[in-house]
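cache lookup: miss for this entity combination. No prior model stored, computing from scratch. Input as submitted by user K.M.:
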Amino acid sequence: MKVDLNSDLGESFGRYKLGLDEEVMKYITSANVACGWHAGDPLVMRKTVKLAKENNVQVGAHPGYPDLMGFGRRFMTLTREEARNYILYQIGALYAFTKAEGLILQHVKPHGALYNALVKDEELARGVLEGIADFDKRLIFVGLSTSKPLEMAEDMGLKVAHEVFADRAYNPDGTLVSRRLKGAVIHDKELIAERVISMVKDGGVKAINGEWVELKADTICVHGDNPKALEITAYIRKRLEEEGVKIVPIKEIVR
Amino acid sequence: MKVDLNSDLGESFGRYKLGLDEEVMKYITSANVACGWHAGDPLVMRKTVKLAKENNVQVGAHPGYPDLMGFGRRFMTLTREEARNYILYQIGALYAFTKAEGLILQHVKPHGALYNALVKDEELARGVLEGIADFDKRLIFVGLSTSKPLEMAEDMGLKVAHEVFADRAYNPDGTLVSRRLKGAVIHDKELIAERVISMVKDGGVKAINGEWVELKADTICVHGDNPKALEITAYIRKRLEEEGVKIVPIKEIVR
Amino acid sequence: MKVDLNSDLGESFGRYKLGLDEEVMKYITSANVACGWHAGDPLVMRKTVKLAKENNVQVGAHPGYPDLMGFGRRFMTLTREEARNYILYQIGALYAFTKAEGLILQHVKPHGALYNALVKDEELARGVLEGIADFDKRLIFVGLSTSKPLEMAEDMGLKVAHEVFADRAYNPDGTLVSRRLKGAVIHDKELIAERVISMVKDGGVKAINGEWVELKADTICVHGDNPKALEITAYIRKRLEEEGVKIVPIKEIVR
Amino acid sequence: MKVDLNSDLGESFGRYKLGLDEEVMKYITSANVACGWHAGDPLVMRKTVKLAKENNVQVGAHPGYPDLMGFGRRFMTLTREEARNYILYQIGALYAFTKAEGLILQHVKPHGALYNALVKDEELARGVLEGIADFDKRLIFVGLSTSKPLEMAEDMGLKVAHEVFADRAYNPDGTLVSRRLKGAVIHDKELIAERVISMVKDGGVKAINGEWVELKADTICVHGDNPKALEITAYIRKRLEEEGVKIVPIKEIVR
């Protein structure tokens, strides 16, 4: 039994610092690196890719909306062609840093509002997937577990990884409970660990209404933006390993 | 006897259109494509790379300062590390579009104020050249004919192309006469053609003070932003061919 | 009988030129000047305000989404607080130029996708109106004729101008037919003039399905981005004057 | 004997937080608020102006280069017209927030590389000062103590405040020792306090080479971006008050 731990990194910008990247790198197997549109800049990208290399962590592109002021968390209407080429641009930009550091780009995980918009908008999803396929069909697309875009990606010949969220409540249909609703984010370390183990070993978890949601867990999204998040991440890793789950990068899970 | 004709293209942005790219593509052998920092956006980059492909024109990256408002024509102090990673980012972004269209990225030519700043600032030049080498040592660096950065690039194992300007007056030291000075830009079609032929066949041209400047002409910068510029470009090409000069892409000149 | 003619101006940016501002100024009474977020920059704003002054045209702010790449034509989710302060920022920026040129800022008309989003989203509308009221309650809010935000603005003590569109088809509910649908934009000069006269004199126009839509026409949106648009604008003005309608700025209509 | 304490605030952006604004507000009398170009955004500007109001602190505009990625700390060539209108834009933007909160804008202090560039470039200085005068001649221009732009400002009819830096070493000509040189920044609390007292009471301070530099101290720049800086700021204030120096806003010093 194997699972990947991924985290969003490289989100600093210019003089602005965000995230405990040096710390969280020790616990994860895949890093989603911001590409300069919603966060990150070339110096940060270089530094983050180097850091991943030193920690033997796989690197993926984390493209987002062109919205630094909103950190890519605000929905924007994009046409399929815009989505396709915005994704392509950002993948290429990050690829340059992995190439410079002698690494292979492993995956692509859209960021924030774009990640969520994909699930509901097939045209947008198609644009994003075309952007990935345009660059390299060997890139792994990371999307919301059991969601439609993963199926579309497979139909296009892309490899996919089903992603689950360690600290988020689920609706019965497998979507995440909106952050605006009560109970959307889970803070209890023990509960988080139990849910993660359930998702990995039992193929599902209890939804916010108590129903069972079937999920596939190729990779688990964890955080490292503050000491508490870091502690939870370390604990998740420890508990999974105690349960005999191997923590390996996505490319060793998805083939 | 061979020479390349290059032009700066893909400079439109969003709803803003600039340049007669479709027209000028017919006369040139190498296109310098803006990478979204001083001009260009992902849709424009895609379209421009496609257009180059259709016209059998080689594609190069045309990275600039992060200054859309100033069109990359204003000097900015950058550290070597900033220059290195800013260039790397932009090359990667454009590379994605050449990859998507099945083309090989041929060269890198810095834009505007950055192009000029390189000639005088060795640290900056080193940063830019490191950014190119980080990505791929087979990329050809296009710089001001006989300038120091070309020598530095060769020492680093990069291939280089010496660039001359069809419509610009030269100082006796081989630098361009500043646009702010009288006589900096030459408008007479016939004179332009004669100067270009002199640069290609005689290895030099008369400077603004009448002295002879030795130059090497691997590639000639031509324009296509208005009908007059286009006419001059077509005329330069015709006259060079009449003189028995073959117009071929940089990669067939620089080996 | 009086009506204002307004047009979106100052949409150039850096080296990018858009619109025949010098020409269209001759026919209009109110200019909506872009504030640097979706279009425009400080040099363009200064020039446009000066041009308005020379032509005795009233100036209003034309704030938009922070989306230069999309020209403010793409919907973005904004909170009420974001909308309020984004509007306030842009009004202030433009105000500086009117102050420098000795003019009084007359009105505020949101741009593009923001203009349309207001009509459907009360929270967003409230944010935008609060931004206007925060700056100066004497500013006139220009919105889609008979739409809800105009009513909300009046309840807040703002003055309002009902805007109609010369060349756009209407739905029976008074909203504009989406540009993506056939027949959304009207190109026939004569038809446009007749519809405008109907809106001003008869207080309504035929909707796309043939039904009568009641509208209030304080100000008519006209264009000047190309010679054809300019010709239509001149013709509208001529025809209105022949009908005895006086063309005066919004402030002489709304009191 | 009176002096103002000023600090650069409102430098957060979007999700990025910078500075202990809430804390430093307690010790200062004038706040220089970033205007969204090198730092700050409309939500941050609103919050910062409110905070200043609550703390009875005067507000000034802190305009900078259009360079968020470089935090306005990189030199850029601007023409006089660009400088004039860039400053005007940013003053207007901030003015909107002071107007919304019922405050009077007190001063303008250029930021970072622009602040320093002014001292050496008369054309640039003229542009900046024209931008201020265009908006309101009652605004106080804050510049490097005894520098040329202050003289120019007075000749133009602007009020001026001579600024000194609490923690920076001076060259014998009154300019600041470059941050890149050893000894440029002073860290010892006691030494800082003594130097500040010397500048305020004795009209000068020892330069880095031991020579005496005559300075005028209308306002002292202090910091609050980390707990140590805050402690120094509190200590400076305490020591000045013990020496009988009154800490009052610029407008009570400059008349």
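stored under new cache key. Chain C touches chain D through 24 residues (CB under 8 Å).
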